[in-house]
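Methods — Computational structure assignment.
A single polypeptide chain was analysed. Its primary sequence is given first, followed by the predicted tertiary structure written as C-alpha cells.
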Amino acid sequence: MRIAKWTPTKLIPGWRRARALRCAQVLDEVVNSQVGLLPQLPVELRRRCADQLAELVLLAQSYRHFAAGWISRQELELRGAVTLGRLADAEYVSSVQLGDGE
C-alpha cells in the first residue's frame, strides 16, 4: 500500500542503500561465524554471548530498514548507539578474558 504515492526507497541515494545492505551482510557474516561456537562456551557465558549476537542481528535488521527507507539515518544512528551501549555493558566479557581462561 502506498500513501500519497510516496516511495521511501527513492529518498535514499543508491550508494547509501548499497552501503547499508553491505553493512547488514557483514554483521550477518559475523553472527554466522560465531553462532557455531556457542555450544563450546561454558554455560555461564553462553547466554551472554547469545544475547550479544542477537544485538548484532537486530542492528543488521536496522540497516535493512534504513536501506528500505523505513527509518531515517538519525534513527539508524540512534539504534547503533544503543547497540554499542548494550555491548559495552558491565556484563560484557572481552575476548581477552575468554582467551586467558578467566
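Note: Residues 12-99 form one domain.
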